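pinned: reference chain
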Amino acid sequence: MLLDPENTLFIRGVTPVLLLADAPVHDALPSLTAPDGAVPLCEGWSIVPRLTLCVVDGPGEYGLVVPALAAPVVGGADGGTAPSDMGDWCTDAEQAGGAVVLSVDKLPEALDWTALLSSGTARGGFMPAPA
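pinned: its structure tokens
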């Protein structure tokens, strides 16, 4: 299933994040509550981060493809608000061994990690990248 890049936000960091909105796999992902910030492993799921396409692969028929080159990327040296480069996000994911994938109903106007991780409405977790 192809996800519109406008429904995604790639966020750079030591552990990069892929934020999904209105994703067709939302209900298949595990509920996520991590008020302490420790995001659990998303069992049975993996992510393949590439410059042009990012693949989120789940168990069975679940999964999606994001046209990554057209998707927004934020983060980096400015503290996470300026546009960034997809190649840098892929490097972050490679160094972290994967990425956190969070699925929400709609993308937030401002990133509030406490709200995202403790709301009970986000789904997902850390997804390893295959070696």
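why pinned: Residues 12 and 75 are 5 Å apart (CA to CA). DSSP finds two helices and eight strands in the chain.
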